[in-house]
Sequence to fold (75 residues):
Amino acid sequence: MGLPTAHICSIVPISKTVGANRIIPSIAIPHPLGDPDKSPDEEKAIRRRLVEQALAALGTDISDQHVFDEPISSD
Fold:
């Protein structure tokens, strides 16, 4: 089959259109893996959660496109 991949993205419909099969919604277009208004520790926690979601997605058997979880709030 091939190597599983996970796509962390800001705009889920575009990921679906290009054929990504494991989609992890991210924060925002200009800052998909963080929030510059957060402290370094808060930003690190946001990034960690996104990477953990992506790793969990890689270990999940799927047959069709799947969006994993809702976007992580940067609040």
The mean pLDDT is 88. Residues 22-67 form one domain. The longest helix spans residues 40-58. The helical segments are 12-18, 40-58.
